[in-house]
Amino acid sequence: MTKCSCYAYRENLVKECHNKKTGISEKETAALMEKNKLDECHMEIIKALGCMEYAGKSHIMRYMEHIHPAGDKNTDLTKKLKQLCDYGIVLSVCYYPSDNPCGYRTCNIYSLTGGGRDIFTGTGENRRCQGSYTPLREMDSRDGIKGVLNRAAFNSFYVSSLSYNAKYYFSYHAGSAVIEGRLMILSDKYSEGLVNVCVIPVRNMEGSDTECVLKIRAAQEHFRQKRIKKPWFVLVCEDDAHERELYSYLINCKTIEKAVICMTKDTYLVRNDADAFDNITTYTQNGKELVSEFKKIIF
């Protein structure tokens, strides 16, 4: 049986919100602070979500383990997340098809409420980590759902790449396109001592393959105009079949000929020990057949 991505797109997705309280006022926040209801672990979760915007529990855990590798391994993250949801600081949602509520569901996806983002801003974190706040009602539209799932899929790559010597730019504006993430990886194995990597999550939905091609071309032109070292592209697909479908589309659009493109997928990155640059898939065309090969990129 083919493994399904926990961030896969399906038609007719609807949101299920698990919160009783979907916001928090400044007065309520001040009362929590005064009563010491927010401990260090709570604040680390808030910082993680302030950076990642939409994340699963495993994303938050890997982020926190990277920031504090010697931290308390016995911390009950599920309990802390529930408390933050009860306070109205964090939202917990999932998506499922309206025509099959007992079938496929995404995993729980967490994000900050407006009041939660205010707390994050008050921590003095670097503003380049701050994304845009999306109100709960906007997470219901087709584009809103796509944005949530794309960001969550990107975060699977992000937390799997934290061991690398990289500088991250989230929601990177490349001309007319917005790339989910740009990584500048320092390495003496490549010319100029760095590699630019543009990470583009792609959901298996109508129009996403065309949008992916437009982003690749816009990024190439942006880097050319800025005279920045040409980027590599890592496309985060949902699963093996989606990878092959997207690559075939890129061949037909002649995008492959002019770009360094690698593929990876949710079903690999969701592993707690996944390395973003291990199990990278490259394809070659043998007649009408696509031949895949797994590689590890060494920096």
Tell me how many strands there are.
10
- Shape annotation: globular
Overall structural class, as computed from helix and strand content, comes to alpha+beta
Provide the succession of SSEs.
Answer: EHHHHEEHHEEEHEHEHEE
- The quaternary structure here is single chain
| Major β-sheet profile | 5 strands, mixed
Percent of residues in β-strands: 15-25%
The order of strands across the largest sheet is 4-5-6-7-8
> What count of helical segments does DSSP give?
9
Rounded to the nearest angstrom, the radius of gyration is: 20 Å
Distance between the terminal alpha carbons, to the nearest Å? 35 Å
If you average the pLDDT, what whole number results? 90
Poorly predicted ranges:
none
Helix residue percentage: 25-40%
Give a concise summary.
By secondary structure, this protein is of the alpha+beta class. The chain is 35% helix and 23% strand.
What does this structure look like?
The protein has 299 residues and is of the alpha+beta class. The protein has helices spanning 26-34, 40-52, 57-67, 77-87, 114-122, 142-159, 208-225, 240-252, 266-269; strands at 13-17, 90-97, 109-112, 166-174, 177-186, 194-201, 232-237, 260-265, 280-286, 289-295. The strands form 3 sheets. The chain has a 5-stranded mixed beta sheet. Strands 1-2-3 form a 3-stranded antiparallel beta sheet, with helices on both faces. A two-stranded antiparallel sheet has the order 9-10. The chain is globular and about 65 Å long. The two termini are 35 Å apart. The relative contact order is 0.13.
